[in-house]
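Late entry, evening session. Most of the bench is empty. Finally got around to the prediction I had been postponing all week. Sequence below, unchanged from the version circulated by S.P.
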Amino acid sequence: MVSQPKPYYTPVEYLALERAAEYKSEYLAGEIYALAGAGEQHNTLTLNIAAELRTQFRGRPCRVYASDLRVKIAASGLYTYPDVVTACGELRFEDGHRDTLLNPTVVFEVLSPSTEAYDRGKKFAHYRRLESLMEYVLVAQDEVYVEHYTRQGNDWLLREARARGDTIRLPSIAAALTLASIYENVEFPSPPAVPLA
């Protein structure tokens, strides 16, 4: 049996389809990849981060967007939807629709079992090609744990935080997030009980 070749889409075709679609999809190298919906825990974390940053951005030329603003990495051709994205100063968009950001400053991804390897690996490799990106933050949803990558010239410095009392400082946007604020109203399932012998 011969398999059908995958259809090839241009970026213009992808954007036309995406703007009319009910569900979000990523695009890379002519292929469109459907994104799965997020659960309650994921949505709570995303909203907590965006709300805290929105408060800190009042009166400043910085913006925060949660989940629905597309980002284009021109160097690789990837169109994607970060869980939370920030930009300071003049915003650059691909076109007049203003729905595809070209110059994010900080990107947050909330890790899930289905996306964790991609977010840490290939997706981060794409993001690193954005000259505007200064920080990348990975937030676990199954435990209190945040990985914070900061651009240092051509290198990226990793800092980890594991306690609710820890603070993630985001110098590129002059903001800070406590893990207590990130994980507010987030409950982790209890480990299964160990039967007594």
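Two things to note before I forget:
The longest strand covers residues 146-152.
The domain at 38-182 is CATH 3.90.1570.10 (tt1808, chain A).
Will write this up properly tomorrow.
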